[in-house]
Amino acid sequence: MENSTDNVRLVKVDTDNLDELIKLTVNDYQKNFVASNIYSLAEAYATVAEGGFAQPFGIYADEEPVGFLMIGYFKKDDEDDDEEETPDYVFENYLFWRFMIDKEYQQKGYGREALKLALDYIRTFPAGPAEYCWLSYEPENEVARKLYASFGFVEEPEMPKGWDEIPALLKL
């Protein structure tokens, strides 16, 4: 496969592409950086079942699945006991919740193109208005840090209490 990213597209997850997206995986050393796609899909289902917003996508190059991403949006919930310790940016802003490129397709530009497409989608405000898009990543994941910084994501100066990932925000 060529390294061209001209034909990268996001496809909403459905029963037609579910199986092929579950099969995608990262390199062994990356497995602690991102949840499995099947876990992510279960989390999306539970979030939507509870009235929340989660939109999973397959990342495709032409007709080939090369990755997976998921976007979320959380409203303030008066019943959330941890809300006082949760940073304000978590609520009513978009979360770039999951992002992975299959180990066979890494370093070909697909991730960068998918991130552009995902941000274009977020800027349509599909779940409501927002000021920011935020994400988090493992401190040792330098590839993610550099990619997100190149799009303008800025790391928060402190990790919130109880978090083990670095949060970063992008003003929309």
Provide an overview of this structure.
Helix content is 23%, strand content 27%. The protein is of the alpha+beta class. It has a domain at 8-125: Aminopeptidase (3-Layer(aba) Sandwich), CATH 3.40.630.30. The chain is globular and about 45 Å long. The mean pLDDT is 91.
Give a quick summary of the entry.
The chain is α+β, with helices and mostly antiparallel strands and 172 residues long.
CATH superfamily of one domain: Gcn5-related N-acetyltransferase (GNAT)
- Give the overall form: globular
Rg over C-alpha atoms, rounded to the nearest angstrom: 16 Å
Average pLDDT value? 91
In terms of DSSP E residues, the strand content is 25-35%
Which CATH C-level class of one domain is it? Answer: Alpha Beta
Q: Strand-and-helix sequence, N→C?
A: EHHEEEHEHEE
Please give the number of β-strands: 7
Give the uncertain stretches in residue-range form.
Answer: none
Give me the CATH fold name of one domain. Answer: Aminopeptidase
Strand order, main sheet: write it out. 1-2-3-4-5-7-6
Number of helices: 4
In the CATH hierarchy, what is the architecture of one domain at level 2? 3-Layer(aba) Sandwich
Structural class: alpha+beta
How does the major sheet shape up? 7 strands, mixed
Observed structural traits:
172 residues; alpha+beta; Aminopeptidase; globular
Layout of helices and strands, plus pairs?
Layout: E1 8-12, H1 18-22, H2 37-49, E2 53-61, E3 64-73, E4 94-101, H3 110-122, E5 132-137, H4 142-150, E6 154-155, E7 166-171
Parallel strand pairs: 4-5
Antiparallel strand pairs: 1-2, 2-3, 3-4, 5-7, 6-7
